[in-house]
Amino acid sequence: MCGVSVDMSKNPLRGRYPGLPQVQRLQIHTSQDLKRGSIPQLEKLPGELKEAMRVVAQVLPFRVNRYVVEELIDWGKVPEDPLFQLTFPQPGMLAPEDFESVARLLRQNAAVTEL
């Protein structure tokens, strides 16, 4: 499923404040989730954009929580949606020669140490 999840149901304030709303589990997506395809909203994106995100995520850190993915990004406007651009790895975040170098290594199934 997701890279990291935290059980928020064990909130110590729940017993003291009965009106406290039910919270969902915190789920964090990482670059591993880009590889696994475990972010359903990304399935509708073109393959080349998904591949570019995986390339950039090899160099720059990537983490996003479920709330951002499900509530804040307007998936009907992706890839132009500003929150999508700020949150998910974008091809322009690397110099073209660095992007191509990492992409080539990924196509060759290079070891992580080579990346």
Helices, strands, pairings?
Elements lengths: L3 E3 L19 E5 H6 L10 H11 L5 E3 H7 L9 H6 L8 H12 L8
Antiparallel strand pairs: 1-2, 2-3
Question: How is this structure best summarized?
Answer:
The chain has 115 residues and is of the alpha+beta class. It has 5 helices and 3 strands.
Description:
The structure is a single chain. With 115 residues, the protein is of the alpha+beta class. The protein has one domain. 37% of the residues lie in helices and 10% in strands. 15% of the residues are buried.
As a whole number of angstroms, the C-alpha radius of gyration is: 17 Å
Shape from CA axes?
elongated
- Strand-residue fraction? 5-15%
Enumerate the spans where pLDDT stays under 50 for 5 or more consecutive residues.
Answer: none
Strand order of the largest sheet: 1-2-3
- Which class do the helix and strand fractions yield? alpha+beta
Count the strands?
A: 3
How many structural domains in the coordinates?
1
What are the defining features of this structure?
single chain, alpha+beta, three-stranded antiparallel sheet, 5 helices
